[in-house]
Amino acid sequence: MKLPPTSNDDSLELKMTPMIDVVFLLLVFFVWTTSFELPEFDLPGSLAELPMGAAEESSDTPPVEKFDEIIIRLLWQAEGVQIVLNGEELGQMSDLKARLTEITALGVQPPVIVDPDEKVTMDIAVEAYDAARAAGLDRVLFAAKPE
Fold first, then answer.
1. Which one of 14, 26, 119, 144 has the lowest number of neighbouring Cβ atoms within 10 Å?
2. Which regions of the chain are under pLDDT 50?
3. Res 20: pLDDT
4. Would you identify the CATH topology of the domain 70-142?
5. How many Cβ atoms are within 10 Å of 142's Cβ, its own excluded?
6. What is the mean pLDDT of the chain?
7. 18 Cβ partners below 8 Å, 6+ apart?
8. How much is the pLDDT for 45?
9. What does R_g of the chain's alpha carbons equal in angstroms?
10. Are 104 and 135 in contact (CB under 8 A)?
11. What are the residue boundaries of the structural domains of the chain, listed by start?
12. Plot region of 68 (φ>0 → left; ψ -120 to 50 → alpha; else → beta)
């Protein structure tokens, strides 16, 4: 009986080129997907507070109030349209424009939502829209009623 040879001349050769290609593809994939992720510290948050030993701001300048959004409600009443700006009743469109100008003077640009009642005509709603745009606010939207 003849025994098979113990030495194998056909040695196993490991090809590195396909493995390097796969590594580069994975590297490109991970770099591409992580470049679109926003860092968590860039997101707005209301939990940030000054450290305990931080100096207070000077009392000469009032603190800037943060506005999430400004809601202009146009309510229909028998004597005319009532304008409500974030819960505060205003008399006329000129008062609305003056208040919105004061808000933009603070250096903030919150979104403005014009919410007219069903009986309020479109010209009054557009007048409120124009007052917000004339005050310097960029994002002015109309509220949509759910059906």
1. 14
2. 47-48, 58, 64
3. 93
4. Nucleotidyltransferase; domain 5 (3.30.420)
5. 13
6. 77
7. none
8. 52
9. 32
10. yes
11. 70-142
12. alpha
